Amino acid sequence: MCRSELGTKKCARRHFSFPVRGSRPEQNFAGGSHGCAIPLPGPPTVVNVSANRDDGDEVSVEAAGRELNISHPGKVMFPERGDTKLDLVHYYQAVEAPLMRAMGGRPVLLQRFPNGATGPSFFQKRVPERHPDWLETVEVSTPNGTTSQALVARDLAHVLWAVNLTCLGFHVWPSHAADLAHADQLRIDLDPTPGVTFPMVQEAAHEVRALFEQLGVVARPKTTGNRGIHVFSTLQPRW
Fold this sequence. Notes:
Blueprint lengths: L45 E4 L8 E6 L2 E6 L4 E3 L4 E2 H10 L1 H8 L3 E6 L9 E3 L12 E5 L5 E6 L3 H9 L2 E6 L12 E6 L7 H17 L5 E3 L6 E6 L5
Antiparallel strand pairs: 1-2, 2-3, 4-5, 6-7, 6-9, 6-10, 8-9, 11-13, 12-13
């Protein structure tokens, strides 16, 4: 992937102009960044909370007309601020509309953090065999021909199902599940590596944009990932 367009931390880099050369990188949540705060911009929709909000509780929440059980809602996912799994659920409820504009109907690769954002993570490309009957999946393939049943972010209920599995990173396909063969997004992924600093990545992003401008293509930066920059452009789904 491919990261969600939506970040959850307010920072200067989350805008639709290219970062100034030499500015200091910051991280936000979407795409697997670690240890950042989660602002809660609206009231949550909680159907039922059993007992207290400690790590052993189960909470029922409503999303997209479905009721989901969130296990261990008090599990701390972002230790720096003490934000919990339930806090993250509430955040996604509050930003449902822009979230679905960014990733609705697309397959996603899940990046799970069982011990919270500061702990190790792993990628899960296959939906477990035991899952709700309503959960939508689609068969996707990798360049080496390996296939898997990937989760489709059809609505908020699908997203929260993954959040309950401690998914903090949604790596989103550049095409919709209904038409996997035709991408409608182009992402040039630029990341720092040993010997390549973030200012060098910024310089490369400006060069990529200049190339796109020569071709008459509008490109924008996406800085909602972990360390680098995506140079992002929308496409007609024809190729």
